[in-house]
Design brief:
about 425 residues, mainly alpha, two-stranded antiparallel ribbon, 20 helices, about 75% helix
Length: about 425
């Protein structure tokens, strides 16, 4: 089956498809990363905002990016099989409750497993509705979000307001505290990088601060998330299993004609999707706050979907999108208006570059608008010292909208994503 699916396309088709889907080569990606580092370092020096690349900023950004990245990876698994999963937010809510409920009674490790299990249950419910009964994927996802919220609120009032739970600090909106999961530093490396960062050298200290944030106070769940990203890429793009699963999201009728059990692969993908979303919720309950809190997901399931779209339904781009959203969220949480104000200078440079590129491509209307907005942003930066607090809290959501609007032209979703499928419909 694998040989049939991979060896029979017309000549040159695989090369064209690879160029379209892989996006950029490794060299281009490294050049983009280097350019971004130079730009951020220059903005730090000009604005005097050393927090932009500090160890604490990057560490907080990583912690905030992990649940978003896991939610996005959950969406990637589901949508690569052809099932749109708007219910990620609800599955994350189930994961937070499961982790908090079991975690305080036994151990955080069992709480982590329970959070994943609760997410899998949510994913299976979504699969039953969409794959077996053909319910509209959006309707099913919204229903799961509402059902998860109502169910966890009811169970919290049932389990956390009386007896030992109440004595340990539980109430209708939160569980008792849960023991911490292990975290670690890289011996010698963390302290050395911190020393270099404190010199505030151009670019060198910025790189040291970023690396220090990546290797300091690192949660074991963060390491697990990195392994899951790499493993998902390998499994979905380098194995026959992944080829069959992705074929279900591209053309399930053709996949069925080649012997693929489309229902089975869709069920597996959506169950894995629920488990990953539940893991993201468990991270919030066990690593971020050490307790289950009502509403602690804060829309991260939806931001995870945005990160997945930004990443063009691929793990690498998704990881970059999650990192971007986590970074912007950490800026507004840790440093407030002064540091977010420095981002205006960064935004000005990006808009200026985009405007120049659009004019070069003869898109005069779009280029003119970009340049006018860039001029407005520059004026805003020059006449103010910090961003008003009302705008600071909206920073991650504004970044989400900007990124999606700028990346919308190169997106390519799975062809059969969201379509109803019935066994034998191609006969």
């Amino acid at each position: 089956m694998t040989a049939t699916m991979t060896d029979t396309p017309p000549p040159a088709a695989p090369k064209a498809d690879t160029a379209t889907r892989s996006g950029r080569s490794l060299g281009q990606i490294l050049m983009i990363v280097a350019g971004a580092l130079l730009l951020i370092a220059a903005v730090r020096v000009i604005s005097g905002s050393d927090q932009l690349t500090s160890e604490g900023q990057v560490s907080a950004a990583l912690s905030l990016a992990v649940p978003i990245g896991l939610a996005g990876l959950a969406g990637l698994w589901s949508e690569r099989s052809g099932v749109v999963n708007i219910g990620l937010e609800g599955m994350m809510i189930l994961g937070t409750f499961g982790a908090g409920w079991i975690g305080w009674q036994s151990s955080p490790w069992l709480g982590l497993l329970c959070g994943v299990g609760f997410g899998v249950l949510g994913g299976l419910l979504h699969a039953v509705a969409t794959v077996t009964f053909g319910v509209d994927h959006i309707v099913s996802g919204v229903a799961i979000n509402l059902l998860a919220l109502g169910t966890t609120q009811y169970l919290a009032k049932l389990f956390f307001v009386d007896g030992k739970a109440a004595d340990a600090g539980g109430n209708p909106k939160q569980s008792p505290p849960v023991d911490s999961l292990p975290s670690f530093d890289v011996p010698g490396l963390s302290s050395g990088l911190h020393s270099i960062e404190n010199h505030h050298w151009f670019l060198i200290s910025d790189i040291a601060g970023i690396l220090g944030g990546l290797f300091t106070d690192l949660s074991i769940v963060t390491v697990l998330a990195v392994v899951l990203f790499v493993g998902s890429w390998w499994l979905l793009w380098r194995t026959p299993f992944g080829l069959r699963l992705r074929s279900c999201g591209e053309n399930p009728i053709a996949a069925e004609s080649l012997g693929v059990n489309v229902y089975k692969y869709k069920y597996m993908a959506v169950a894995v999707s629920g488990g990953l979303a539940g893991l993201g919720g468990a991270f919030l309950a066990l690593v971020t706050s050490h307790t289950y809190l009502e509403g602690q997901t804060g829309g991260r399931g939806y931001i995870g979907l945005a990160a997945m779209i930004f990443g063009n339904w691929r793990p690498g781009g998704l990881a970059m999108g999650a990192g971007l959203f986590g970074y912007s969220d950490a800026l507004q949480l840790r440093n407030g208006g002064e540091t977010v104000h420095a981002l205006l200078l960064l935004l000005f440079v990006l808009l200026l570059a985009m405007g120049g590129w659009k004019l070069y491509k003869k898109a005069h209307w779009q280029g003119g608008i970009s340049l006018m907005v860039a001029a407005g942003v520059l004026v805003w930066y020059l006449v103010t010292d910090e961003v008003p607090s009302d705008f600071v809290g909206a920073t991650p959501y504004v970044v989400t909208l900007l990124v999606l609007s700028l990346s919308a032209q190169r997106l390519r979703m799975p062809k059969a994503d969201g379509m109803r499928y019935r066994k034998g419909q191609g006969k």
